[in-house]
């Protein structure tokens, strides 16, 4: 990038900088006059267009006759003077900082223009047709109002000036007399009336907050000298990059622009496995909202301040026992960072949750962090697109996903344009898949990426502590909640006071004080203990709140024991169904919807339980379960750990038993639900993006089973068991022979074909461990079928019965079994 500066003797100097060494600079936005009026690079270089990094050349315009009357030079002089007033040594003017005779340089400049304006410290808009002079009307001196001229300025009609308005953080407007009119924030109402651009984006909002189609509408009736430039000028605004191809025409240029936008949207959609922003809101809602008093103490903590302020402090590990408020503490820190950090700083976060397969693996963490980073700074998408454009969605899901995502992440962390970046990961101990790999990545980036700061939380577990030892003491900090017990206890007290203030049962001040004091004494700095006791107090049948608090045992595990004892005192039938719900929730790969739970936990010979019945049963489970947005959750990871211990101790059905039950119920459910064209799409060419879920949804109760039945079979080990293994093999064999293609259609409708391919690999691994030749051959063929046709089935559900069948080998078992589903209209069929 070339930048201009004035020497002390008034001579103009132009200097070329490498991308990683560009100093702060101002940038000019204006409308071009006639070619003869502008100062070009050729004018400055006097024919010498060779320009290397570090090259400097001085020009003395004072020796040029009539230089003061050249309008273009006046703009350069103004920009330089204004930059000096603002403490900026360098400035950029498009007329003379780009060698337009060099086509390669011009192409690079057009593709870099949005970034150059975006990175400018200040942008000065010179409005040559807006005057602030006093005019005389009918010999009477009146002050001229410049607003009408401002709104009708030619600057608002030109194509390139749109990105020059939107890209920089600070845009200042000047009249033809070089008088400052205001900036895009103070003038946002006027600019909004002129352009229709929302004031929110003019006042600091990010472009990513607005849909791309809305951004495209902002161009309005703007025009460019070359018709293709209208599309090129919109590329940065739409977060994509297209190389200029002059002569292609406006229509083709916009076609390429829309094609790039679609590719970026596809990439972001496929990268997103879960939106951490939605997870954060769900967690806060589930825990009753974020109370400011429960986390603000950490803002004054010296360890936290050192992590935030010291460049060499790159990792802060927050550790504490279950229920001590680590997750809500991080939610509060995230809110504080979002409200205080400058626009150039990035913040990405992720909340691990052991009981949800979407968010309990190292790969999921990386996908979530990358998705948030690219959403905030779209230019970073290039690191993802380099891999994605070659292989598509598979790079995020197949066996090599971690390797590829790590390469993308590492490349992104070393991007020259990356500013200070905060990466927050909650509950490392709930990352059940590949945690060591994630810790190693955190360690590497903590030592090699000086602009990256990590904030992580977990229980105080030795294996995490040992792994993090390799980070130097200077770079690594730890904040132990036990060592800050007094501050945590004060926050718990504030939480108690807040919860009691919402409890109508405590009418008398004296009773409220007694309950409050008792809770304060027994809470032991544990938010979760308070939350569970408060659930008891909030129950309609509670009439003696003081007795409830007095009877509640101190300590989380003791409280769980009491809740389990209460369940055991129910009728035998209710005990069985409560235990079934608890165990199903504990082993499920994600929180189950009420309708799904009703199908999977029904008693033998009974029909599916309706959602409201499941809700009532969940309420009987002693506060172990909570229902949010029609999904059943365990109240906390510590509750899952408690139930797992009970299952292992045979107090509850074992995990193997529960996995087999969920497998068997899933296959029974799928056998009754799956059929051809469940959503009445009719046409094989109907894409997954065009699918509309019918009401009622035939897959409503079967979605979980469709995606996870093989996972439960695998964990049950029933297929390789000496007892019942043969019977299980017969059940699987029968299902695959009768329902395999319909299952693939179901996976496509659930947008989980990639997961289905991984599941078939697990099933293939499993079947090789048992002596079932007939089943082995079938699964091998079914595995090949989904691997070869995954792309077609994923994008077009009914291609399962068209191209997938037709282009399978004639000797394929799956093709032979489902020959009756081949399209009748095709008389000549390929022979493979």
From TrEMBL:
UniProt domain NACHT: residue ranges: 314-459
PROSITE patterns, per the entry: NACHT (PS50837)
SUPFAM superfamilies: P-loop containing nucleoside triphosphate hydrolases (SSF52540)
Keyword annotations: Repeat
Superkingdom, taxonomy of origin: Eukaryota
Pfam families xref list: HET, NPHP3_N
UniProt-recorded name of the protein: HET-domain-containing protein
Upper classification of the organism: Eukaryota, Fungi, Dikarya, Ascomycota, Pezizomycotina
């Amino acid at each position: 990038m070339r930048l201009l500066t004035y020497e002390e003797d008034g001579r103009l100097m132009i200097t070329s900088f490498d991308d990683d060494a560009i100093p702060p600079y101002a940038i000019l936005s204006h409308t071009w006059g006639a070619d003869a009026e502008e100062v070009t690079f050729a004018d400055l270089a006097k024919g010498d267009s060779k320009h290397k990094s570090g090259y400097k050349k001085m020009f003395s315009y004072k020796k040029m006759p009539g230089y003061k009357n050249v309008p273009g030079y006046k703009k350069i002089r103004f920009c330089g003077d204004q930059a000096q007033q603002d403490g900026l040594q360098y400035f950029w003017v498009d007329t003379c900082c780009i060698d337009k005779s060099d086509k390669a340089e011009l192409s690079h400049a057009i593709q870099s223009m949005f970034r150059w304006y975006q990175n400018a410290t200040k942008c000065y808009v010179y409005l040559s047709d807006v005057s602030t002079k006093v005019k005389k009307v009918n010999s009477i001196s009146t002050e001229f109002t410049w607003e009408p001229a401002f709104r009708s300025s030619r600057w608002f009609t030109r194509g390139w000036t749109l990105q020059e308005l939107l890209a920089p953080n600070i845009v200042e407007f000047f009249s033809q007399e070089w008088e400052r009119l205001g900036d895009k924030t103070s003038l946002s109402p006027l600019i909004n009336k002129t352009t229709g651009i929302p004031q929110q984006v003019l006042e600091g909002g990010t472009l990513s907050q607005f849909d791309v189609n809305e951004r495209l509408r902002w161009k309005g009736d703007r025009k460019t000298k070359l018709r293709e430039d209208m599309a090129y000028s919109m590329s940065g605004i739409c977060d994509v990059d297209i190389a200029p191809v002059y002569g292609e025409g406006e229509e083709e240029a916009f076609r390429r622009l829309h094609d790039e936008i679609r590719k970026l949207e596809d990439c972001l959609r496929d990268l997103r496995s879960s939106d951490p922003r939605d997870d954060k809101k769900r967690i806060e809602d589930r825990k009753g909202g974020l109370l400011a008093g429960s986390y603000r103490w950490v803002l004054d903590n010296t360890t936290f301040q050192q992590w935030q302020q010291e460049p060499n402090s790159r990792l802060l590990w927050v550790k504490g026992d279950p229920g001590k408020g680590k997750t809500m503490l991080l939610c509060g820190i995230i809110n504080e960072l979002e409200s205080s950090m400058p626009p150039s700083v990035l913040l990405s976060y992720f909340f691990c949750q052991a009981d949800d397969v979407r968010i309990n693996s190292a790969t999921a963490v990386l996908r979530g962090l990358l998705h948030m980073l690219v959403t905030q700074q779209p230019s970073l998408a290039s690191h993802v697109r380099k891999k994605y454009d070659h292989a598509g969605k598979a790079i995020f899901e197949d066996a090599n996903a971690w390797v590829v995502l790590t390469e993308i992440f590492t490349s992104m962390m070393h991007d020259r344009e990356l500013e200070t970046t905060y990466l927050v990961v909650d509950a490392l101990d709930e990352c059940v898949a590949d945690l060591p790999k994630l810790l190693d990545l955190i360690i590497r980036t903590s030592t090699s990426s000086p602009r990256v700061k990590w904030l992580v939380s977990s229980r105080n577990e030795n294996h995490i502590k040992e792994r993090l030892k390799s980070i130097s003491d200077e770079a690594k900090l730890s904040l132990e909640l036990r060592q800050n017990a007094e501050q945590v206890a004060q926050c718990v007290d504030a939480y108690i006071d807040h919860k009691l203030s919402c409890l109508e049962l405590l009418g008398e001040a004296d009773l409220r004080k007694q309950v409050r004091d008792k809770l304060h004494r027994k809470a032991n700095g544990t938010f979760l203990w308070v939350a569970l006791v408060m659930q008891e107090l909030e129950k309609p049948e509670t009439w003696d709140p003081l007795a409830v608090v007095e009877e509640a045992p101190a300590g989380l595990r003791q409280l769980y024991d009491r809740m389990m004892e209460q369940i055991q005192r129910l009728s035998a039938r209710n005990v069985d169904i409560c235990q079934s719900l608890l165990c199903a929730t504990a082993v499920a790969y994600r929180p189950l919807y009420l309708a799904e739970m009703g199908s999977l936990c029904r008693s033998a010979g009974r029909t599916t339980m309706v959602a409201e019945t499941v809700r009532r049963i969940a309420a009987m489970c002693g506060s172990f379960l909570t229902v949010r947005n029609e999904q059943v959750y365990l109240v906390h990871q510590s509750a899952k750990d408690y139930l797992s211990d009970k299952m292992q101790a045979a107090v509850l059905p074992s995990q193997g038993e529960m996995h087999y039950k969920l497998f068997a119920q899933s296959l029974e459910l799928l056998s009754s639900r799956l059929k051809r064209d469940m959503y009445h799409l009719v046409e094989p060419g109907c894409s997954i993006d065009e699918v509309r879920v019918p009401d009622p949804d035939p897959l409503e109760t079967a979605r979980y089973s469709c995606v996870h039945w093989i996972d439960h079979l695998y964990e049950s080990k029933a297929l390789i068991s000496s007892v019942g293994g043969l019977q299980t093999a017969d059940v699987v064999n029968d299902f695959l022979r009768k329902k395999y293609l319909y299952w693939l259609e179901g996976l496509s409708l659930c947008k989980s074909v990639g997961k289905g391919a991984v599941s078939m690999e697990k099933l293939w691994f499993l079947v090789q461990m048992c002596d079932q030749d007939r089943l082995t051959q079938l699964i091998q063929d079914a595995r090949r079928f989904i691997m070869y046709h995954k792309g077609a089935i994923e994008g077009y559900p009914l291609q399962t019965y068209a191209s997938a069948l037709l282009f399978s080998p004639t000797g394929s078992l799956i093709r032979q079994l489902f020959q009756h589903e081949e399209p009748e209209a095709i008389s000549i069929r390929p022979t493979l």
